[in-house]
Amino acid sequence: MRIGIYGAPFSGKTTVFKLLVGNDANEEMGIAKIRDERIDFLSKLFNPKKTTYATIELVDLPGLSPELSRKDKNQILMKIQNVDAILWVIRAFDDESVARYFDDPGKEAGYLRDELLVRDLEIAESNIEKLKNAKRKLSQIEEMQLKALEKCELALNEGKFVKLTDLSAEEKNLLNSFDFFTLLESVIVVNLDEKSFRAHDYKGKASIEKLARENSLSMMEVCGKLEMEMNELDEEEKLEFLKDLGLSESGIQRLSKVLYSSLGLISFFTSGEDEVRAWTIKKGTTFKGAAGKIHTDLERGFIRAEVVKFDDLKKLGSMKEIKANGLMRLEGKDSIVEDGEIINVRFSV
């Protein structure tokens, strides 16, 4: 899973990037661990040689300055082609020592939205022209692509995201190769100062909420500066810090969950003495498909899966008690995996 981090200069997006991936990442790419208390519990229970959290790959874009030419902006946006979602970071913190391009976070959000719309409109127009000027008869698939692109062009000219356009599932699949940014899921992260974060209020909040609502975007608020300070604390101090803020988990933990929810992702687990591991799959994945996530041999030779619900294991405390209470079940290849299930695949190759 690959996420592009998008924002204006001095918005704090690189701070958010480093909070997610750690300071050892390179300038543009990094891997974020999805912290999960369920994995922590399983690791304590099984005491494995290795514990592996689910991960997300992140790409940190250069700041998209309003002063840049269209060509330079497009070169920056090209860096997030082939991502699965876009993380917008919007500045709503006051700091006189850090320059800013927008005095209103609502205007900054509008600018970021408009840049994606303009880029997508260029993509639609150029591909429509290419298909219409083709010196041969279009294939049936190309005719369908042209029709879908014309729908997109109309919607984008009206300021509407491609993902909200009246497109069939087949048409959306035909558009995947064009890399429309507004076809992707997006999450808005508003980066606040401590005063605004504690007050749950800031300039431009209503307009950002309106933009998110109208474009079907997820939205959350963090204070990057507080998150950085929190990272320097031990676990006990961190819990006290969060309690003082009226929170049960850090902004980065909340952000990880929002990303999963927005992208329609869930986790299942494998566990044992060698390794406890979280695996990321799309909601609606079958047990056979989940087996393939672990290894292609498991998918190819799938017989059935032994399945335990995490909550049952946490309540009873051991696999022995799970079996004694008849709470381990067997599932076939076409059954659907639910979030938090612990799976052992039986297979034969």
TrEMBL record:
Keywords: ATP-binding, Coiled coil, Metal-binding, Nucleotide-binding. One of its GO terms (molecular function) is metal ion binding. Residues 114-151 form a coiled coil. Its cofactor is Mg(2+). It comes from the Bacteria. Residues 264-347 form the TGS domain. The keyword Secreted does not apply. One of its GO terms (cellular component) is cytoplasm. InterPro entries: ATPase_YchF/OLA1, Beta-grasp_dom_sf, GTP-bd, P-loop_NTPase, TGS, TGS-like, TGS-like_dom_sf, YchF_C. CDD domains: TGS_YchF_OLA1. This is Redox-regulated ATPase YchF. The lineage of its organism: Bacteria, Thermotogati, Thermotogota, Thermotogae, Mesoaciditogales. The gene is ychF.
